[in-house]
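The instructor's notes for this session suggest beginning with a concrete chain rather than abstract definitions. Hand out the sequence below and ask the class to guess, before any prediction is shown, which regions might be ordered.
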Amino acid sequence: MTQFVFTPLTNDPYKDIQSTALGAAAGENYTTKEKNKFMKLSVTGNNSYELAADGDDIEALLLELEPNSVNSGYPFGSIQKDKRLKVEPTAVLAVGAEVVCGVAEPLGTVLAGYPKVKAGVGVMFRWRVIRVISPTLVLIEKIT
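After discussion, reveal the predicted structure:
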């Protein structure tokens, strides 16, 4: 076995980080408690991203946000749409297993640990396990 192990990249100039409005509707109370949660494009047509739910594709991860809104009532933040992420599986996963969003904490709840994933194949956005760090922690990477 190789001594090399996959790790999250701490300085990757090619990360796809984008600014976006947050929430499905104006006035939703996004705070720093939402950091590091999975996000998906809001289907309300408001040019924003909202929290992903159990079973959703993993489209992005919320990195930072400005809780004060100057955006017609929508908070503003930045999301990461690719590269490697440390996550907690809801069941044992092997290298190569594809994953989707697992049980998600609701708006206003601090994320306990890392975002949760479960086995499943995304419809539009596909991620797979590239390293099992422990039974409760894996590294995933977007399949391009």
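Then share the key points. The mean pLDDT is 90. Residues 87 and 114 are 5 Å apart (CA to CA).
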